[in-house]
Design a protein that fits this description.
This protein is α+β, with helices and mostly antiparallel strands and 247 residues long. It has two domains: 74 residues; 159 residues, no CATH class. Helix content is 36%, strand content 22%.
């Protein structure tokens, strides 16, 4: 019994030293774990903050791109319409571009333009013109006040260019493509015509500069009916609505 007790008492310093070492090491280990945990937390926070900052930067870039108005510095491309005269068949006229045909006829068609016009009415030197920014054309706002045959219509334009109109001297009869581009999809209530009311309604029928392929005839536009067809050019009398290409 004494030996056992003595042995236990003898071992007390050793146990004390071990406990002291454990106690000494434990706070260090605790502090080390706290440092590691804090470092991990800070690192995770930095990564999260970086991710948030990156996402915010991308969002700002995307929002700045989408907030810019479309074509802010780019002008819309103009619709190019044929401006030189031609001798055309019915089939060729029925296949012109930028037109929707409602009904085909043996002499032409009923239809309307598909162009989104950008008309501006201006007065230059006391002369009214209609500028179409969609096609780059300048139209006489009215034209002749009376009807005439095709040959006299061409002569009327020559006289117009001699004296000038709105400061310009290069007016001409429109091609069938140019004249048909004025056709609207329905009659306007203010002028009872298939044409925008920015134009004078007096010119309900107009000649074009294009001739018909098979007879002594030329193509004309009927704004009362929304019709493109041909007529014998020395028997029928229609108005003139001159046009010019803006440069």
């Amino acid at each position: 019994m004494r030996k056992v007790l003595r042995k236990k008492l003898t071992n007390l310093p050793i146990l004390y030293n071990k406990m002291e070492r454990v106690i000494t090491i434990s706070p260090k280990l605790l502090i080390y774990k706290i440092i590691l945990f804090s470092a991990s937390y800070i690192l995770a926070g930095c990564v999260t903050a970086s991710a948030i900052l990156f996402a915010a930067t991308n969002a700002n870039n995307n929002s700045s791109d989408t907030s810019k108005p479309e074509n802010s510095n780019v002008k819309a491309e103009k619709v190019q319409l044929r401006s030189s005269y031609s001798n055309l068949s019915v089939a060729e006229v029925q296949s012109i571009q930028h037109i929707t045909i409602r009904k085909k006829k043996e002499w032409g068609f009923y239809g309307q333009s598909t162009i989104k016009h950008d008309y501006v009415l201006k007065e230059i030197n006391d002369n009214k013109v209609v500028i179409d920014h969609a096609t780059g054309l300048m139209w006489h706002q009215s034209g002749s006040t009376f009807g005439m045959n095709w040959e006299k219509a061409k002569h009327w334009v020559k006289l117009l260019n001699k004296r000038g109109y709105a400061g310009y001297y290069d007016w001409r009869l429109p091609t069938v493509e140019e004249a048909a581009s004025l056709l609207e999809s329905s009659k306007n209530h203010s002028n009872d015509r298939f044409i925008d009311p920015v134009f004078d309604k007096t010119q309900g029928w107009i000649w074009t500069g294009d001739s018909y392929q098979h007879l002594d005839a030329a193509w004309r536009i009927d704004f009362f009916a929304g019709l493109v067809d041909w007529d014998i050019y020395y028997y029928f009398f229609y108005h003139v609505r001159p046009v010019r290409t803006m440069k």
